[in-house]
Amino acid sequence: MDFRAVTFYFFAAIMVFAALRVITARNPVHSALFLVLAFFTAAGLWMLLEAEFLAIALVLVYVGAVMVLFLFVVMMLDINLDRLREGYWDYLVPALIVAGVMIAEMALVLGGRYFDLEGMPQPAPHAADYSNTRELGRLIYTEYVYPFEIAAVILTVAIVAAIALTLRRRKDTKYIDPAQQMKVRRKDRVRMVSMPLEKPSDD
Amino acid sequence: MNLAFVEGLIGVDGVTALWTLAKIVGITVPIILSVAYLTYFERKVIGYMQVRIGPNRVGYKGLLQPFADVLKLLAKEIIIPSGSNKFLFILAPVLSIMPALAAWAVIPFTPDLVLAKADAGLLYVMAITSMGVYGVIVAGWASNSKYAFIGGLRSAAQIVSYEIAMGFALVCVLMMSGSLNLSTIVTEQSTAWGLLGWNLIPLFPMFLVYFIAGVAETNRAPFDVAEGESEIVAGFHVEYSGTAFAVFFLAEYANMILVAALASLMFLGGWLSPLPSALADSIGAPWLAASGLPWLLLKIAFLLFCFLWFRATFPRYRYDQIMRLGWKVFIPLTIVWLVLIGGLMQFSWWPW
Questions:
Q1: Residues B258-270, mean pLDDT to the nearest whole number
Q2: pLDDT at B1
Q3: DSSP assignment, residue A65?
Q4: Which of A71, A79, A173 has the most B C-beta neighbours within 10 Å, making it the best mutation to test the interface with B?
Q5: In angstroms, rounded to a whole number, what is the distance separating the alpha carbons of residues B237 and B80?
Q6: Is B127 in Cβ contact with A60 (below 8 Å)?
Q7: Are the beta carbons of A60 and B126 separated by less than 8 Å?
Q8: CB of B260 closer than 8 Å to CB of B100
């Protein structure tokens, strides 16, 4: 077993453990943190497959942004664990069916004649100066430019829709426009009054 | 003892591993020492800005003050609050120091003085630094304290918001240099015109966005709502004491140095001299135009001084104003600049 294989099994073991803990941990915050560990280890595995751009993008997007927001929400929710856990036996049968179908599909793909190990020879490793990032960029912006742009438009529409759905204009907020704040000058706020030091006598 | 003997003892891979380990120590130890003296520098600078003297008792002019502080913190007891999550409570400082140090792996100090000449160096730095927020969130949650929790949540929202603007600013840099490799980004800025060739000139608004977002990412004043002393005591690290607190402190300052180093590399020409070679020759000092490590260190030191200057000058931002600045000012500005740079490059109206 060479160093590469040792690294692979090391990462794979951590990832399987983390993935199992995601669904078995009692505390939802622990589950979310184990999911972060699983993502990070997956990035390590992708790095082994010479897909460094995908690996870094996974850490940047999922670990760095998505899971932070996810954790943010999970921490603020006061989740009643007992209510979440009831109905285990009711859901068991449908869950087993879904799991069985998934296992059957995976077995078909992995065990099929066209997908065995001989059908997929190990790709030749690239030279050290091969830039995965550059190749991906070239493909995305030339060959797959329309699917890429369509995906971008769909995501933008989704963002606009999400904001439009949750936007409400409150009349009672004391919001101050910073531009107006900046425009204020001293003469708008302070009035200098010249007063005699002593009250002049009446007589 | 020569290298061949060691190779015979532990093999070629062993030598590579040991040599890499030595290089890692060679980068980490100076960073930790810089952190120690950055705290001293900060107290002195802010002291003089507020017409005080600052630390001046321990050692000559207070120069041993950082070590006194470290010894004091090491000797203190780590108190684990009741009802806290013990494992995560201890893990949080580690989560926060790890990215702050790991990011230095791809930072070049001179063209050859770099641990890993990674081709996707800029992406790596962004990915690793974006993990630093976990230390803050986990600390806030595991402390079982409302103040710490509020601090953690504020910090999470703030860091996620500013990361977008930061990312767009970096995209502009990468468009200018056509590479994600930090060494290439610096060499692309090298011209006979010195300062005029730096990315600072065409990307000046992006430099401001990057640096301000960097101040926000490191939770420094005026963006220090995560620890705002007057509002939530000390924010996410309110329950930490002793070494655990020291590690948070170390991470914050290491991140400051990292942001300053990245800004110097990407916008201020890294190790390049600001003087045009013709000018240096005409005043009879051609060594002034030579590039080298001192220039990079000078630029980093200047940016770090700006960090301290901001802290001594500006009052803390209100939370909603921070969000407005990030989302409504910086992100539109970066997108406009991105399109502008793209247009200039496309139609070759590019003087650089």
A1: 89
A2: 47
A3: I
A4: A71
A5: 12
A6: yes
A7: yes
A8: no
